[in-house]
Amino acid sequence: MGLGMQSSLRPGAVIGVAVYVAVLFVLVPWAIAASGRTDLYYTLTSVALLSIASAGVWLTFFIGRINIGQGAFSLAGGYVSAILVARAGLSFWLALPLAGLFCAAVSVLVGLPILRLRGVYFAMVTLVLTEVARLLALALPITNGAKGMVSLPLPGGVKLLGVTLIPDFATLATPNRAFYFLSVALMSLCFAAMYRLVHSRIGRLCRSLQQNEELASSIGVNIASLRVLAYSISSFFGGVGGAIFVAVSQSIYPSSFTVNDSVNFMLNCFLGGLGYVFGPMLGTLVLYFGWDLLFQTGRFQLLIFSSILIALMLALPNGLLSLRPFGWRRG
């Protein structure tokens, strides 16, 4: 799954970025205001947060590893943020990056031994991580066990020299709208950073791991360091996504992120396209709304949904973005 797009922005890419910004930050809020469906803010916020976590899973695919444990880091990030805010009295805006960094640090400790495993062995070990995180959340007193942590405070305001940079979410008439802008902005930064990483020197070295790790090692590539770096960034994204989710829902439970979520994060990447940086974003959008649209089918929902997914993966093995309308390139 090569990613051969040049890092320089072409005119078409500039237009694409402008359209992206206009749609997410102008057109979507206008459409929601016109329709009065303010509940869509929560729905689209969830899609953005799931996209961030899925982007981390895609990054581990980029180094040739299958990651089915992202739910563990989303759950850990959510609990770390909740504990720092509710018990330590820390500002959410400080707790957010700290939650991501905590997950990155844990992933380094976990990744050092398991990243040596190949293929299905690494995938099976990561699959266990989500259940381990859930059991820890049930057992540790600081997480309040099965009762979870509820009634968490909304993010406070941020001022600089008397100027309000970020308003106090508790004072807003529609905090879901603010969460939408926050989540979409962080999603945009996440994918922009990942795009830049993939097209950097480090990204080219990571790409060499997909093709032949032995050959890459023979020419001096530090395979172990690249694996750990990619996995830590992946886990950071998962922790940040989980932390914002907790702030939106103002609660977290051991069941907030399960093995099913970890599998869905992986499916988002497959559906959007493993060869495309923005594949997880499109895959998350289609998977989320596709599942909801099939709700009317009742007990046949899962059967129909699974059949459609299998058919799509057979017809489009490189994901939906492989359709590449208007001459899009891979990237």
Compact description:
By secondary structure, the chain is mainly alpha-helical.
Describe the fold and architecture.
This protein is mainly alpha-helical. The protein has one domain. Helix content is 67%, strand content 2%. The protein is built from 12 helices and 2 strands; from the N terminus they run H-H-H-H-H-E-E-H-H-H-H-H-H-H. The protein has helices spanning 11-35, 39-62, 70-86, 92-114, 119-139, 175-198, 201-211, 213-218, 223-249, 259-272, 279-293, 301-315; strands spanning 158-160, 163-166. A two-stranded antiparallel sheet has the order 1-2. Helix 3 crosses helix 9. The chain is globular, with a radius of gyration of 20 Å. The model is unreliable at 1-8 (pLDDT under 50).
Task: Outline the fold blueprint.
Layout: H1 11-35, H2 39-62, H3 70-86, H4 92-114, H5 119-139, E1 158-160, E2 163-166, H6 175-198, H7 201-211, H8 213-218, H9 223-249, H10 259-272, H11 279-293, H12 301-315
Antiparallel strand pairs: 1-2
